[in-house]
Design brief:
About 40% of the residues lie in helices and about 20% in strands. With about 500 residues, the chain is α/β, with parallel strands linked by helices.
């Protein structure tokens, strides 16, 4: 937001206050009788801040600069709430929560329109039921833990268990489908932010991505605003009738910085020293996502994937249980599964999707139901697999099929697998038609190539547009030679 000089604002408002105490980045000010909560204030040094609390005529201000202000500094009102410039000009750029480019050399045209960071969530009358699937391109998630457009799904796990890899694959797949991705990187290392940009440029999707980022060196006040700025940008595109995918990476870090601000402002601490309103802070933010009515395109969504980092698999920590209560399910990445070499390392029994299954076609729902039941049975059979030669042929077959399904689910994050290809391969595996890892890889790459080949994709669409699960499996068997031979072409999109 563009702010006039201190002198002009002082002349306009006729009000000024004086800093009487500093607990950086919280500044305590006397004066400013008509100031409002969340209003931006300007110090005579040129530094900006946001009103945090007004208490008996004393004003608490969060300052955005890394450098502290001195006691005795004058401050005046701007009569404007904290906002960010929003528009299509942001596409392909990395900015901070104030709308300033992270790279000074960036050729960046500032949008003319702006939105308040702290907006009120849309009421239930402006929302729609979630009915469209959100394809992540990750076979395990799309088959067993399906997501819907407008869903808020928590990605939770220990450090270095592949959370970012899941997000990268999902962004890549969704951008190919015309969705705009907004990535809020909260207090990340500058090298991590740079790596994100390089991935998007390498995959040729940067022109459909906006990165809103703060580094761990920034002021806690600026870091706190990161997810709100990203959500405000997503709401702008929602009003334009464009679907958005919003990544909040990560809210556990966000909560820690809010705790720091609250303790410096002398707020009364609660559990784990977090302030009492930490649940409200995150619920108000995440409630702004969803599936909404739109006057032109009928419905438009903001799909939100917040991330929470936990320690030693502790799902019961304060912030993680709070966010689990706010979201429509969670995908739990287990470090034990990760160290066994499975990618993505999703713990299926401990993961939940509350609204994703209602978006599936009848065929996809049947595949999901049968696959879930089979994998539950496979887990039980693994406990008796040490009997070896004494196992029946049926048990041996089930164990072989289960192994092959998990080999199919083991997927590098650069690869996205279309939903139609996932359904066909799962049918080929469940019917024990594909029996080796080499066959699986060959058929998978061939079917992905066929999916993007106009001459070959007709058969895939015909097979996966069926409603009857039994007929679908029969059609797969009758076309198995054609499908297996598609593996001759091995260059995926």
């Amino acid at each position: 937001m563009d702010i006039p000089s201190f002198e002009k604002l002082l002349e306009k408002t006729g009000e000024y206050g004086v800093v009487y105490q500093v607990s950086h980045p919280i500044v305590f000010v006397e004066g400013l009788p008509n100031v409002k909560t969340h209003e931006v204030v300007l110090f005579e040094t040129g530094q900006r801040g946001e009103v945090f609390t007004i208490n008996r005529g004393k004003v608490e201000v969060r300052i955005f600069s890394h450098d502290p202000v001195k006691v005795g500094t004058k401050v005046t009102r701007t009569d404007a709430l904290l906002s960010i410039a929003v528009g299509k000009e942001l596409l392909g750029h990395a900015i901070n929560p104030l709308g300033e480019p992270l790279d000074p050399a960036d050729t960046y045209v500032r949008p003319k329109e702006s939105r308040d960071l702290d907006a009120k969530p849309t009421g239930i009358a402006g929302r729609q039921k979630i009915t469209t699937p959100l394809i992540t391109g990750i076979s395990l998630i799309d088959s067993l833990l399906p997501l819907g457009r407008g869903q808020r799904e928590l990605i939770i796990g220990d450090r270095k268990t592949g959370k970012t890899s899941i997000l990268m694959t999902t962004i890549k797949k969704q951008v190919y489908e015309g969705v705009i991705a907004i990535y809020a990187a909260i207090a990340k290392k500058k090298s991590d932010i740079k790596r994100l940009q390089e991935f998007f440029i390498e995959e040729k999707i940067m022109e459909r991505v906006i990165i809103v980022a703060t580094s761990s060196f920034d002021s806690p006040s600026l870091i706190y605003q990161t997810p709100y700025a990203a959500m405000a940008i997503a709401e702008y595109f929602r009003e334009q009738g464009i679907h958005t995918l919003l990544i909040l990476d990560d809210l556990s870090t966000h909560a820690k910085f809010y705790r720091e601000l609250s303790l410096l402002a002398k707020r009364f601490p609660g559990r784990d020293s977090y302030p009492g309103d930490i649940f409200f802070v995150h619920s108000k933010l995440l409630e702004r996502a969803g599936n909404f009515k739109h006057p032109v395109v009928k419905e438009v969504s903001i799909t939100c994937l917040p991330v929470v980092e936990i320690v030693e698999g502790d799902l019961t920590s304060y912030v993680s249980t709070n966010i689990m209560g706010i979201t429509d399910g969670h995908i739990y990445l287990d470090s034990n599964i990760y160290y066994q070499g499975m990618r993505p390392a999703v713990n299926i029994p401990l993961s939940v999707t509350r609204v994703g299954r209602q978006t599936l076609t009848h065929l996809a729902r049947e595949v999901n139901k049968n696959l879930t039941a089979f994998l539950a049975e496979y887990t039980k059979l693994q406990n008796i697999s040490h009997f070896g030669q004494e196992l029946t042929d049926d048990v041996k077959k089930s164990l072989r099929v289960g192994d092959m399904i998990y080999k199919f689910f083991n997927q590098p994050y650069q690869l996205t697998v279309p939903a139609a290809v996932q359904l066909i391969i799962l049918s080929l595996l469940m019917q024990d038609i594909i029996q080796t890892k080499e066959e699986l890889d060959k058929v998978k790459m061939g079917l992905i190539s066929a999916y993007y080949d106009r001459g070959k994709q007709k058969l895939l669409y015909e097979l996966t547009s069926m409603d009857d699960y039994k007929k679908f499996n029969e059609s797969i068997v009758s076309n198995k030679d054609t499908l297996m031979n598609m593996g001759q072409s091995t260059s995926p999109n």
